[in-house]
Amino acid sequence: MSADTNREVFFELMPKVNYFYSPDFGGYYYGAGHPMRPFRMSLVHELVVSYGLHRHLNIYEPRPASVRDMTAFHADEYIKFIREATPETYQSPTCKDHLRRFGINDECPIFSGLYDFCATACGASIGAAAQLASKDAEICINFMGGYHHAKISEASGFCYCNDIVLAILELLKAYERVLYIDIDIHHGDGVEEAFYTSDRVMTLSFHKYGDQFFPGTGARDDIGRGDGRGFAVNFPFTDGVRDDMYLGCFKPVIDNVLKYFKPSAIVMQCGADSLANDRLGSFNLTLNGHGECVRYIRDTGLPLLVLGGGGYTLRNVARCWTYETAVLCRHAVSEEIPFNRHYEYYSPHYLLNILPTNMLDRNTAVELTKETQRIVDQLKRIGCPGAGYESIGADISKTVSLWRLKGEEEEDEKVDEDQETRKLHRKEEEEEE
Ligand code: V1D
Ligand code: CA
After folding, report:
1. Where is the Histone deacetylase domain (predicted)?
2. Which of 108, 118, 186 to mutate to test the pocket of ligand 1 (most atoms within 8 A of CB)?
3. Is 149 a catalytic site residue?
4. Which of 254, 305, 322, 394 is the most exposed place for a label (fewest CB within 10 A)?
């Protein structure tokens, strides 16, 4: 074989990986003391480039989503509101009550540039889905997206517009069945709710459940309704889960989802708040565990959209999503963090991996095995995929379910037993600012 033919074979075997990034994204600011810090995207991108990963992927600056794009899922009046709201209206005491209707509060404040922030995140996820649908890419990455809590007309949990639902709707134009996987520590309630009655989208969320942990949904017996019965899958964990136990659940669940659901494309939300030492989370995963989930999904060879999500210890978010970018473009990265503009964030050891803490693992092998078996039994019952599906290109608005009403009243913030540890993390974060 000539050198040229070798090159062609090499490029054919290597999946085309497209990475979406907007240099303005890191400049948005939710407000003082708010744990969601879009600045983390600047850290991620800087680390990706300093590792030289940009040479192994194609970088795209996204086109912002239009109002029309966003109202494929969201209510017209909600998008109009997000577009017109300003930090000044948010500050006015008379407006505050009115804003509550759309879920606006101190957790989801109106900040400067909010609409552009949403349009960028959604534009990137929709653009990425369109590339996958037209086979212009095999893997797309958008760490500016992953806002899984946003509802049709309501902001929730730091999320305003649900780029994930919009991306899935785009994929459904070309693919018969889409699998959504969510490894953020929080339940992916907005995506589950949107497709709760659909058998063309399976939503699978691994999350902390119990102790009134936000958002409080994602119980094991929430499995979908009507045509969608069995197509919502929830894996509840409790505090302290480590790599080995997590993967021991993740892998068999994925194997059985592939076997019984047979997805034609996958969307994966990679919230980094499931890592050890996250400022809001209480799992104990390292990059080996979190990254192995991504590798396992990459190895399915299915068209794949990888998204961001939560993640509140900024230096670890950058470590995690950089490592996962390397996994997706199949390029090994060194354990030593290369010098970059934000090098001081990685002090004192300047290494890539993160260590598990000595926190107690409250999950037991017996419980987790039972949970895995329950899910396998649920999957066995979903029936033969392909039977009775709407034809491709049919009116997909029908697949978005509207039946669920607004959830329970918000619970008071829990008093956390790890409060002291969290205070320490918070102090570290403040020092990072
Ligand atoms: F710790 C905080 C400090 C300031 C403001 C908010 C918080 C905070 C921590 N956890 N807020 C929460 C969660 N909300 C509640 C209750 C509702 N409140 C009245 C109390 O516990 C919200 C957590 C949102 C998590 C978002 C996400 O990580 O899942 C995400 N994924 O994609 C983007 C964000
Ligand atoms: Ca989750």
Report:
1. 34-327
2. 186
3. yes
4. 394
